[in-house]
Amino acid sequence: MLKRSLLILALLSFATVAAGAEEGGWKQLFNGKDLTGWKHVGPGGMTVEDGLIKTHGGMGLLYWTAGKVGDCQIRLVFKMRDHNDNSGVFIRIPIEPREEWMPVHYGYEVQIDNEPEKSNEDEYHYTATLYSLTKPMAKAGKPGPEWNTMEITLDGPRTIVTVNGQKVTDYTEGQPVPERKFDFEPQRGSRPLQGWFGLQNHSDNDIVFFKEVAMRPLKK
């Protein structure tokens, strides 16, 4: 009886999340049950547990298979398992991913990592920055196991990222960026106005959960 009650509560919880995602023109891209519409490339993987996408190992990428997106907003609700874990959201990927490194070097990674200094990285690697390219306008990421809401706006050549209602990134193609410091940082250069997007699983030591991935057209 207890198991049945917990299942009913879980289903009601997902229904509430999904309904909220549909409001305001948001389309839910994760159905809360499985990874229909998504495909994984690279090491590690992702599973659905208790209605959440859970990262495993890596470094790999789970990408949305419906095609390129642009002039839209992407909303993600996520949490770290531990006080701090590493993940990311890849955007503006020029071609459909077949392995994990092309998106790193030729798309943008919207970082998820509140403590980059522990990996000998600077604030250009903080949550909601374009990884190694932009400096955070605010440090708004919450530690695990608190939930965070990230919204990514793709407006032509402009990329805006907010976390928990605070703007962290506002970058337009062609603006100056720092030189590369590490070989695992992305190649510099422009990105397409429309591209594929996906979620990163970083390593065995970094577990991140996503309970919502939603998208809506950009209102102009």
Topology readout:
Layout lengths: L1 H21 L4 E2 L9 E4 L3 E5 L2 E5 L3 E5 L7 E9 L6 E7 L7 H6 L1 E5 L35 E8 L2 E6 L2 E7 L23 E6 L6 E10 L3
Antiparallel strand pairs: 1-13, 2-5, 3-4, 4-13, 5-12, 6-9, 6-13, 7-8, 7-12, 9-10, 10-11
Describe this structure in words.
This protein has 220 residues and is mainly beta. The chain has one domain: Exo-inulinase, domain 1 (Jelly Rolls), CATH 2.60.120. It has two helices and 13 strands; from the N terminus they run αβββββββαββββββ. Strands 1, 3, 4, 6, 9, 10, 11 and 13 form an eight-stranded antiparallel beta sheet that branches. It has a five-stranded antiparallel beta sheet with strand order 2-5-12-7-8. A hairpin with a 2-residue loop joins strand 10 and strand 11. The protein is globular, with a radius of gyration of 17 Å. Residues 5-21 have low confidence and may be disordered.
Helix content: 10-25%
What structural category do the secondary elements indicate?
mainly beta
Mind telling me the CATH class? Mainly Beta
Return the CATH topology: Jelly Rolls
Shape: globular
CATH H-level superfamily title:
Exo-inulinase, domain 1
What is the averaged pLDDT score?
92
Distance N terminus to C terminus? 51 Å
How many individual domains? Answer: 1
CATH architecture, please? Answer: Sandwich
Low-confidence runs: 5-21
**DSSP strand count:** 13
**Largest sheet, if any?**
8 strands, antiparallel
**Structural Rg:** 17 Å
Percent of sequence in beta strands: 35-45%
Our count of helices gives 2
How would you spell out the order of helices and strands?
HEEEEEEEHEEEEEE
